[in-house]
Specification:
By secondary structure, this protein is α/β, with parallel strands linked by helices. The chain is built from eight helices and five strands; from the N terminus they run βαβααβααβααβα. Bound molecules: adenosine-5'-diphosphate and magnesium ion (MG). The site of magnesium ion (MG) has 3 residues, from helix 1.
Length: 205
């Protein structure tokens, strides 16, 4: 497949600031008259959003959870991501496959090798062009979460779970430095936005 558009993903532990910075990215793209779609995982399609409800609230076997994540992702790629990239649009997704490695492998102990198989099946050669990793200490992320919202199944997990996720994300970034842009989410929103802008200038212009 010949992708014309760029695929950008946002990753990080819960409360790291992904949703906060999506607003800034939207404005950046609109100001440049760049066509984009904003989407999220799990979700992004009608079926995917129904699976999201189940995934975020129902307890289940960890491998079942991993497979359902990829079922939602398959639908997402087929209905939203690929068609938009083919049209030349920028696709921005709040989480993608890195989150499955971080949460289901890093957090819950599903084997990387099993996720590799599903990834190859569902994604083929599709990879994000750029991944922003919002990184911050688990204590601060938990503090921010407790201040702002009712927690879902993943967000209610203990500190150790979140620490493992953070470390897994950092490991993934180390393995693909050309794709990842790590942002220190403990800095001010304005400082982070400046860094995002520089990176988007580099990738999109
Ligand atoms: N750099 C920052 N400094 C201070 N507070 C922040 C920062 N980034 C995000 N927040 C706050 O942290 C909370 C969680 O942010 P959110 O964007 O919802 O995270 P995520 O979507 O990654 O779970 C929000 O209340 C947000 O205003
Ligand atoms: Mg969010």
């Amino acid at each position: 497949m010949n992708n014309l558009g760029k695929f950008i993903t946002l990753e990080g532990v819960d409360g790291a600031g992904k949703t906060t910075h999506i607003e800034f990215i939207k404005k950046y793209l609109s100001d440049l008259d760049i066509n984009y779609v904003l989407t999220r995982e799990p979700g992004g399609t009608i079926l995917g959003e129904r699976l999201r409800e189940i995934l975020l609230h129902d307890e289940m076997n960890h491998e079942t959870e991993t497979i359902l994540m990829f079922a939602a992702r398959n639908e997402h790629i087929d209905k939203v991501i690929r068609p938009n990239l083919i049209k030349g649009n920028v696709v921005i997704s709040d989480r993608f496959t890195d989150a499955t490695y971080a949460y289901q492998a890093g957090g819950k102990g599903v084997k990387d090798e099993k996720i590799d198989i599903l990834k190859k099946w569902v994604q083929g050669s599709l990879q994000p062009n750029l991944t922003f990793l919002f990184d911050l200490s688990v204590d601060i992320s938990i503090e921010r979460l407790n201040k702002t919202r009712t927690l879902d199944k993943f967000e209610r997990e203990d500190k150790n779970f979140h620490e493992n996720i953070r470390q897994k994300y950092l490991m993934l970034a180390k393995l693909s430095p050309e794709r990842f842009c790590i942002l220190n989410s403990e800095k001010s929103i304005e400082k982070i936005q400046n860094q995002i802008k520089l990176k988007l200038d580099e990738v999109l212009r």
